[in-house]
C-alpha cells in the first residue's frame, strides 16, 4: 500500500465517527471507600448473609414442602459459580480511523518493491465501468517483515478543553454537537 500511495494511486485520509462507543478509560474504582466507615462492612455482611440464605432456600426448594405440584425443578447444572460476566461500561466518543481514497485519473500502473534480497512485482488496473481495482502481486517474495500491516482500528479522539475558559469550552462543545437544521421548522 505504501508503494501505491507513493505512486499517487491512493491517498490516505482520516474518516471520523462521531457516534462511536468507547470503553470508559476514566473509571477508577476506589478501594479505600469501605475503610471510611464501618457501615460499608456491615452492609456487605448483611448482603452476603441474605444472598446465601436465599440461595440455600432455592437450592433445597424448601418452599416445595407445602405445594410441590406448583413448582418446576431447577436445572441440574446450575451452581453458584455461574456468575454473570462483568460488562465494561461504554461511553459515547468520537473516533478516527484511516481510509484510502483512489485517484481515478490513474487507470493502470506497475512497479517493483525491493524486499531485502528479492524484488516483488505488482500490477494495478482499474476494472472498467466499476469502482473496483484489480491488483496482481508476485507471491514468491515475502515483504511482511519490511512493511508492517496497516491497522484499520479506530482511535479515540480526545479533545483538550481544560486550558479554555468555561465560556469558550461551552462554545467548542456547541460546535461539536449536531448542527442545527431549519428544514423541519415551519414558519
TrEMBL record:
Domain Voltage-dependent calcium channel alpha-2/delta subunit conserved region: from-to ranges = 1-145
Report the GO terms under cellular component: voltage-gated calcium channel complex
Molecular function (GO) terms for this protein are: voltage-gated calcium channel activity
Q: Name one Pfam family in it.
A: VGCC_alpha2
Q: Which residues form a coiled coil?
A: none
Q: Which domain of life is it from?
A: Eukaryota
Name listed for the protein in its UniProt record: Voltage-dependent calcium channel subunit alpha-2/delta-4
Q: Which species expresses this protein natively?
A: Austrofundulus limnaeus (Annual killifish)
Organism lineage reads as: Eukaryota, Metazoa, Chordata, Craniata, Vertebrata
Amino acid at each position: 500500500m505504501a508503494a501505491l500511495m507513493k505512486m499517487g494511486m491512493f491517498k490516505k485520509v482520516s474518516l471520523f465517527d462521531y457516534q462511536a462507543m468507547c470503553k470508559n478509560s476514566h473509571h477508577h474504582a476506589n478501594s479505600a471507600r469501605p475503610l471510611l466507615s464501618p457501615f460499608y462492612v456491615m452492609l456487605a455482611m448483611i448482603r452476603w448473609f441474605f444472598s446465601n440464605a436465599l440461595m440455600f432456600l432455592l437450592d433445597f426448594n424448601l418452599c416445595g414442602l407445602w405445594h410441590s405440584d406448583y413448582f418446576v425443578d431447577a436445572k441440574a447444572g446450575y451452581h453458584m459459580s455461574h456468575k454473570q460476566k462483568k460488562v465494561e461500561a461504554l461511553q459515547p466518543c468520537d473516533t478516527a480511523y484511516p481510509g484510502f481514497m483512489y485517484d481515478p485519473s490513474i487507470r493502470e500502473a506497475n512497479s517493483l518493491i525491493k524486499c531485502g534480497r528479492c524484488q516483488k512485482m505488482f500490477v494495478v488496473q482499474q476494472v472498467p465501468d466499476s469502482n473496483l481495482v484489480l491488483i496482481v502481486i508476485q507471491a514468491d517474495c515475502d515483504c511482511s517483515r519490511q512493511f508492517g500491516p496497516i491497522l484499520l482500528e479506530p482511535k479515540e479522539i480526545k479533545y483538550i478543553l481544560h486550558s479554555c475558559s468555561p465560556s469558550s469550552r461551552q462554545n467548542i462543545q456547541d460546535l461539536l454537537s449536531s448542527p442545527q437544521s431549519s428544514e423541519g421548522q415551519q414558519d
